[in-house]
Amino acid sequence: MKNENFIIKISQIALESTLLEVSTHPKPGLVTPFSNGSHKDMDYVTFIKSASAIAPYFIDFIKVGLNYKDHILNKLRPIGVMAERDMFRATRGVNTHKGLIFLIGLICAASGTLYRKKIKIDRLSLSYEVKRITEGIVERELKNIEDEKLTNGQRIYKKYGLTGIRGEVEKGLKSIIECGLPTFEKSIGVLNLNDSLVNTLLALMTRVEDTTIVHRSSIEGLEFVRKYAKMALEAGGMLTEEGRSIINRMDEDFKERNISPGGCADMLAATYMIYKIEKDMGE
Ligand SMILES: CC(C)(COP(=O)(O)OP(=O)(O)OC[C@H]1O[C@@H](n2cnc3c(N)ncnc32)[C@H](O[C@H]2O[C@H](COP(=O)(O)OP(=O)(O)OP(=O)(O)O)[C@@H](O)[C@H]2O)[C@@H]1O)[C@@H](O)C(=O)NCCC(=O)NCCS
Ligand SMILES: Nc1ncnc2[nH]cnc12
């Protein structure tokens, strides 16, 4: 496959993953086509505008992996800043996809690197590449930070030691490899795409260290989310009436507590992206 075709293919999968995530329903506390979740400042259209604004940058992320051998993260950062700028412009200042830009950007770049090296692109090679690109990011961006102008993630690290999205990528997206993908693959055999994505989100909620939950509610909110998601899954998730009823109750309870697992939503998009890349490129 020529580089141009590869770039188009991966960027198409990245956009499909971004759109499918926000289109999945129900998603406790999160935006869907039928619910704004715990958010007063964003809805489904906000996310569609955001996805349209950031999608062109997926191509640039892939090209970094195709064209450069080292200092990949330093080359990705300026592209990510431009994507965030266009996201904020499209959403009138609302942070919809900051985490997703980071995750999808890294997977795009990792795909480009593997393609250049002629290494089979699958979940393990992508995991390894993301881990290599982000090696040392927790030390650099969370442990050695001054007190002024901290982001939500940095403030939460200082207070609770949670490494959030940086911990996820530095471990090679372990939550996706060990939890998200196995749940999705088990579900897609018996459920439709939407319901499989809901179950996958629940599985991610049982283990992702989502700093968005802590920032919007409390550190206790993280355990509340994990226990609730585990209970829903143990009841069958979207496969059973009881599971669906727990999920709907969870959505109401999260709204009351201002809980929004936005990081888990990003990880859901990343899970589907890796699944689709492996499925389409592995042939
Ligand atoms: C490395 C960066 C992501 C920098 O992170 P930063 O320190 O700026 O912000 P964090 O708070 O650490 O995390 C950023 C977003 O990551 C998502 N997230 C959190 N935990 C996890 C996790 N464990 N796994 C995966 N993703 C995680 C989360 O994003 C989602 O939630 C946001 C919506 O939440 P909301 O509360 O509504 O919005 P906020 O603005 O946070 O609150 P309000 O002000 O509205 O009250 C939404 O973003 C979702 O995506 C975290 O928000 C990276 O940003 C960075 O360095 N950027 C610079 C450019 C760059 O490098 N780009 C990428 C290049 S590949
Ligand atoms: N569907 C969604 N709702 C709220 N925050 C999100 N961040 C990423 N996807 C989201």
Automatic annotation (TrEMBL):
The keyword Heme does not apply. It comes from Thermobrachium celere DSM 8682. The keyword Flavoprotein does not apply. It is an enzyme of class 2 (transferase). Belongs to the CitG/MdcB family. The lineage of its organism: Bacteria, Bacillati, Bacillota, Clostridia, Eubacteriales. This is Probable 2-(5''-triphosphoribosyl)-3'-dephosphocoenzyme-A synthase. Gene3D superfamilies: Triphosphoribosyl-dephospho-CoA protein (1.10.4200.10). It catalyses: 3'-dephospho-CoA + ATP = 2'-(5''-triphospho-alpha-D-ribosyl)-3'-dephospho-CoA + adenine. GO terms for biological process: prosthetic group biosynthetic process. The chain crosses the membrane at residues 99-115. It comes from the Bacteria. GO terms for molecular function: ATP binding; triphosphoribosyl-dephospho-CoA synthase activity. Its EC number is 2.4.2.52. Coiled coil: none annotated. Keywords: ATP-binding, Membrane, Nucleotide-binding, Transferase, Transmembrane, Transmembrane helix. Signal peptide: none annotated.
